[in-house]
Structures are given as C-alpha cells and as structure tokens.
Amino acid sequence: MGLPKKIKKTLPLTQSKTLYPRREELKEMIERDGTYLPKSLLHADLDRGFLDFVKDELKCVVEGKIVPMVDILISTQNWSQFVETWNFQNIDKNAEPPFITVIRTPEVKYGTNPALRYNIPNRRQYYYAQVPTWDGQRHGMDIYKIPQPVPVDIKYTVAIICNRMRELNKFNQIVLEKFSSKQSYQNIKGHYIPIVNDEITDESVLDLEKRKVYIQKYSFTMLGFLIDEEEFEVQPAVTRIFQMYEVDTQTKKRKPKKEEPIPPSTYITTYPDGVLDSTQTFEYTVNLHLTNTYNVDSFSVYVNGDYYGDGLDEIQINTNDILTISVIKTNPLEEGRLEFSQTYL
Amino acid sequence: MSNKVPITRLGKFFGENDYNLDISMGEEWLVGDMNFTCVLYRVDRYKTKTDDVYGETVEDGVKFLPPVEFNAYIQVSAPENKMMGSTRIDQMEPGNIRVSVYQKTLEDLEIDINFGDYIGYYESETVVRYYTVNNDGRVVSDNKHTYAGYKPFYRTISASPVGPNEFRGL
After folding, report:
1. Does residue A120 register a pLDDT over 90?
2. Going by fewer Cβ within 10 Å, which terminus of chain A is more open, N or C?
3. Taking CB atoms and an 8 Å cutoff, what residues of chain B touch A71?
4. Structural domain boundaries of chain B?
5. What is the model's pLDDT at position A261?
6. pLDDT tens profile A31-60
7. Does ipTM exceed 0.85?
8. Into how many domains does chain A fold?
9. Which residue range is the domain that position A298 belongs to?
10. Residue A324: inside a domain, yes or no?
11. B9 Cα distance to chain centroid
12. A229 and A105 part of one domain
C-alpha cells in the first residue's frame, strides 16, 4: 500500500515563522549583505530574475537530457545571440530543437499589482528604518526614507521549440504544476515577485512541405515593481551629545574681605630729635585743618612732591596723595608736633 | 577529422579541374578587372564583454579581430526615404549592401563572415560607409550558389548600414 501523496517525507525541526515574525524575517532577507536599505530593483534585474525563473523553476528534463535554454533576451544587436557558445547548434550554426527561449515584450506598462496600485502622488518619501550612528564622538540616529515602489507589469513569452510531443507535454506539465495556484514567485534580490501565467498558444509549423516543428508559447506577466536606490534618502535625526568637564578638586580658602579704611578724626605728625620731614600716603579724600602746633616754628607742605604752601591752616588731600611736611623746629633738641583735624569728603 | 567523399557528379562533362579553372577565371575577372575591395571587421565573440541579461555589449566592450581586406562583388541598393516608424521623423536611409564573395577567397584568407560583423566599403576616396551583416549567407546549398549543381562556390552576404554611434571603424 502506497503512502498518501500528501504525507511529509521530512519533518522540520524548527517551527517556521508566521505573521509579524515572518515579515521581520523577510525584511532581514531583503537587507542581507548590504545596507539597511532594500536593494535596487530595475528592469534588468527583473529580466534576469525571470530568466533565472525559467532556467531553474521550469527546467525541463526529457529522457535524461535537459532541454537547453537561451539564457539571454535577444536584443537588436545582430550577433548577440551568437555570443554564447551554445552546444545545440547544427552545421549551419542554427539552434537545433529542442530548446527554450524567452521573449520580452519591449514596452513595460504601469503595474496592476493591487498592493501598489493606489498611492500618494509626487513620489513622497516614506519612513523605512531608523539606524543608529556613531561618529566617534556622538551617538545619533539616521532616518532612512524611500519612495513608494513603482509597480510594473512586464510581459514575457516563453517559447519551447521541439520536434517531439513528449517534450511539449513535459514542459506543459511543469508550467501547469508550477502555476496551479494561479501565480508563482521568484525571489529577485531579496524581493518576492509574483508571476502570473496568462495563456498558452501554439504556433507549430506543421505544413507538409516545410520542416515540421512544434512551437508553443506561454505568456507570463511579472507583477514587479521598481525601486531605484538613487531615490533613497538618509536624513539625520536625533543626535545626543555627551560632554565632559574637568575641574580642580582642591578647595581654596577665601581671602578676607578688604575692609574699608576708617580714618581717624585727627592727623598728628611728630618730629623726634633730628627728624624734620614726615611723609604720609592718604587712602581717602580729606581736608586737613591745622588745630595745634608744638615746638614748630614754621612748616612747608608738599603734595605728591609739588610744593603746596607754608604754614597753611587747611590742606586738601585726594585719595592716594602723598603728603610731605617739612618743619623748622623752635628748639631743635626737642620733639616737634603738628595736629590736624580731618574732614572727610 | 570528418570523412571526405569525392564529388563525381557531372563527371562526364565537368570535373574538379574544370571547376577550379572556372573559379580561377572568375577570380581573375573579379580581382583583376573589377577589383571591388572592402574591409571586414570581425567581432571577437570571446573577448567581447556583454551583459548577462540581453547579451548586449557593455560600453567600449566590443573587441575586434584584425581587419581583413577582401575582394567581392558589391551591389549597393538604392537609398530609401522613409519615416522612422510612426515618429514623423523623415530619414534618407542608405540602402543595404550585397556582397558576393568566393568561398575560395574566404578560405585563402582564413576568414569567415558572421552575423553582426562589420564591413567597410569606400564609396569615394574620402567617404567610407560601414555595414553590419544581417544575413551571412552561410547556407549555400541552393542551385544558385553551386556551380551548375557541382559544388557551392560563393556566398551572398547582406548587410545594413550603421551610423557612427554604432561603428566608426578601428
């Protein structure tokens, strides 16, 4: 008794991710081996992806031999189809059936992928990721923005050219099984791109007087989208600055506050034996009035070294003036003295 | 090495010696009297760099083998005055060139002409026009290209004019 067809031959050891974790997983796959941004996806990438799809997913093996495939989309350059050293050429250098070739409809129209059909105009940039940055001094964040991908529908025709019905049957079986769920997917640069099978047509040459050959064409539409990395935008977001200050930890004593001078109410100069001059620096502005003399015959006054007068009753002194008084004593052997009262100004 | 089978058809009236004599007389007429010469620029298909999707050359990626001058019978078609598709841009397109060359000439020069190779043909002392091969005429099994049904002896090659943005000579 055979096993039921749907029985699993191998059991996965880990649970595959679903829902949000699966989306995270897909996002990581898109960004793998590169920046935080998705990889650019343009026409040539989609074309290469479709060629790989045909080569790998629609690989047709008949009687142990792989039906060869023309691995490029033939362009307008006359010799381009002969660039490859095919091993299925005949003596006339013509491709010998069976083989598979891919034709792309040159015009690419705006896409019908419903996920991308309606959008906000003017190519607005959308938030994609925020990426931490560190320039050696500052931590920060960059905001990565990308525009909405542009949906495109690219139509391809896969033609199988062969001489035997069994090659047609095998290829037909592969295509129908692959597209039994209406669409199939191709992973192109990390993006899953859906491919829809449109129709199957037959252009076989079955004229009696010509070389008979089966030509069947399978039309496919790739519901792709275009992402151009030139349009990506990276903007700096929040930047956090870490500043350090170095300070002296020693404590210093405060200097005592300088006290205002309290001048006495009188100013007395004495002239001991042998002394005839006195000098005083005033730290305030004051008027000196002579009040009394003792053993002084006469005296001369000098302010800041300039002669001011003799025997004056009043002397006007400004702050920081140097007052010098020279006396002539009545009795040179005794002490002389001058007494002034001070009036502050 | 492939087997060789002697061609004995028409043997009662015609043979290898007659064939060779006629070919040499034809060459004498073509080279000695007519003396149409053109230059073949062969694309080096191994060294040429192409992309892997369309097989198109990358910029400055086309590599050529050394150019070879050869004699052939040249016929240039009349130019066409037509619009490019439906663009309403009128152009006076030069006509295609038709090059008939002896197989022996190609064998003596050890060259082959393939699709996409370029052919230069001097129209005057100062004007040269280049053409790209669009039909290399490699199938010569028809009656026209065989000498009275004896053996193929020449090839007819068709080529389209190209502009200087595609090829300007070497």
Report:
1. no
2. N
3. 52
4. 16-161
5. 66
6. 776 677 788 899 999 999 999 999 999 999
7. no
8. 2
9. 266-344
10. yes
11. 29
12. yes
